[in-house]
Amino acid sequence: MLIRISAFPTALLAVLALAACNPASPTGPNSGAPASQTDLAAPQPYLTPETSVTAGGLQKREPDTCKAVEYVSVLGQPAAQIATLGITKPYRVVEWRGVEDQVYNPQRVVFRLDARGNVYNIDCG
């Protein structure tokens, strides 16, 4: 009986401590509701701006070594348009939130796609 009485305050303290860790519930019209696909803003197409040559890393990043500016005609277009460019040098197409290795090739053109499969960025790498 003595053990049961002394365990009660300890258990009560543990419950109160855990209750204090619970975050307050959000308030507002969309609280807890998942965002729909139409609510998500699509990324705007852009060409990566030129960068200055800096030290660091295994290879210096030089401005537009792959001549990415030659392919701006496909910005905002579906990924299928990349095949019509007749690119003879190395290139990579990276899907929305896709996995990309970290091997940097300054001569390779990289086309990045948005969630809808359209080209939103072109740069070297």
Automatic annotation (TrEMBL):
Compositionally biased residues, Polar residues: 26-39
Alphabetical UniProt keywords: Signal
Extent of the signal sequence: 1-19
Residue ranges of the region described as Disordered: 26-59
Record-given protein name: Lipoprotein
Source organism of this protein record: Thioclava dalianensis
